[in-house]
Design brief:
Length: 346
Amino acid sequence: MKVRSIEFLLSLLLGTTVVAWEHTDEDEFRRAISGHNHALVAFIEPSTAASQALEPEWISATESEKKSLISIDCSSAASLCREFDVISYPALRFFDGHGKMTSYRGPRRAPSILSYLKRAVRSSVTHLNSEEKITAFQSSDDYAVVARINTQDKHIETIYATLASHYRDRLSFGSAETEAASTVSCYNNRDSQQFTVSDLSSIDALPKLIESCLTPVIGEFTRANEMKYLQSGKSLVFYFTTTPKERDAYVDLMRSVAKMYKEYLSFVTVDAGEYGDLAAPLGLASVPGLSVQNPMFGQVFPYPREKKITPERVGGFLMDIVQGKVKPWDGTFTADEASGHGHDEL
């Protein structure tokens, strides 16, 4: 309450409006999810950092889809949240208006939330009956899957439908009939990548295709996936960011370099607000900053803070490491680094 009061006073002094959650009460909530109405509901607890991080993204999303996006404050509606088995915050649940509830586990960013809402209200598989519709569908979402299924391959059609039902919160699925051999293609439009599989005899062929397609060229390093990255056998290129906008700018800037080296290096971003304690062991006295780690040999190569981060300079830095021109970090900071002085702009 104190933080909100301060924000309100500042808004009066500065002549601005502080945009904040507009929660729904229990009666409004029950009306919103009944009568064949669909809704994506954010169950939040205002004091948690994760709920606070979701707030600006959720508000941004409601600007274009206010009717179907509602939020519940679990600090004042605890019994309602317990009724829907909310045990961590925020919890995002989609109600289809027919009594079915589905958890949303995708990125908590406004564009991703809006994309999910569009997918959730249509059938899990969109039937495509022309090449024009297939072409349009391929670019209709960040991640789109198109299956061209031979009319004799009913088992593939069944497997595909099951897969679509499972992954519909993250990808759009379309299908078309063909007289040729069945193939499935996945389009990662964020990173301009396409993945195709035609040998569908293996039971894990389609899940592997989806996993490859969903893997971003530059991922987000978290406690949940750190072992996956550390045990991949690749060196890691870390970039610590302080805001989502900063992360997006870095990803757009470095995507081409990450693609070039993806066979040998994993490029990842790290939320400095949540995982700032990881920066110092990587030779970064302050953030934002970039560092390369070779987990196999325990070596760290911090990118010089006085150098601007550009694709060309980072690419050159990586080549210098490979050629032995850059020595591993010795574990100490200079006086300037320790005091936070340096240049770190993109």
